[in-house]
Each structure stands twice: as structure tokens, then as C-alpha cells.
Amino acid sequence: MTDLSEIYNARIMELAAGIGPARRLAEADATASAHSKLCGSTVVVDLKVRDGRVTDYAQTVKACLLGQASASIMEHNIVGTPEDELRRVAGEMRRMLKENGSPPNGRWADLAVLEPVREVRARHASTLLVFDAVEKALDSIKAKETAATA
Question: What angle do CA 100, 114, 80 make, to 5 degrees?
Fold first, then answer.
């Protein structure tokens, strides 16, 4: 069993404290939200994407420490990231938590600090909220592009 000090450690607190102020994009290509029924956490994201890469990002996070830490990492790494990389990282996070997979690496390596959360299933949803919201926004953008070319 994972000790709570492994989950709520100094690095996670540092990451959560490093989250920027809530903001919205005036002309986002897509907005999406994700909500955890278990803890009440909510993340709302706005995305601007050009040529398959995120060019601007904003978020409003009302979440626990774990959700804030995930969102902080997302906020600091997302601009310039291609859509396929975001989907890959989201998949790696789900596998890390739910299937004992390896944590993301490269510029997303800070997400490894959330690895102990895998032992506390009740915290998976809040940890993944920002990834769920970003993927919903990307899906919305893709649907608009498909409709425009149909």
C-alpha cells in the first residue's frame, strides 16, 4: 500500500503551486471540460491549434492537489506540442495509473511524480482530468475540421 506521503510529496506540492492563474482564451478553437464525480474536481481548457500543434492554451482548474499538479505540468509543456504527442502522453498516463505502465518521458518526465497515484484508484480520475479535457478539445477541433471539408 502506498503511503500518503508518497502521493502528496514536496514535488507534487511544488508543481501544484506552480500552476498559473486561471484564464480563458477569447477566440479558442475549442473549449472542453472534465469533471470528477468522486471528488468534485473540474478542469476547463481552451485550445488554439495551427497545423496540428497547440499554439495557445488556457485553463481553469478547480481540483485537488493531484489535479493541480497534472494541470500545471500540462500548462508548462503544451504550447508547441503536436496533437499526436498529446494523445500519446494521455495514453501513457492512463496506462501508468491503470495498467502499471511506464510514466511519460522527455519533456513530460515530471508526470512520473504522479506514479504512486496508481495505488489509490479513487485519485485516478482527478489526476487524469486535464488529459481528458485536452483530448475532448482536440476531438472537437478535429470534428470541426472534418465538417468543414465535408
Answer: 105
How many of the other CB atoms lie within 10 Å of CB of 27?
Answer: 7
Helices 124-149 and 65-77 cross at an angle (nearest 10°) of: 40
pTM of model > 0.70: yes
- Average of pLDDT values for 9-29? 94
Range list of β-strands (E), 7-141 = 30-35, 42-50, 53-62
> Do residues 45 and 59 touch, judged by C-beta distance below 8 A?
yes
CATH 3.90.1010.10 fits 4-145, yes or no: yes
Instruction: Give the CA diameter of the chain.
Output: 53
Cell of 69: 499538479
Q: Tens digit of pLDDT for each residue in 40-73?
A: 899 999 999 999 999 999 999 999 999 999 999 9
Mean pLDDT on 16-20: 94
Alpha-carbon span 145 to 91, nearest angstrom: 23
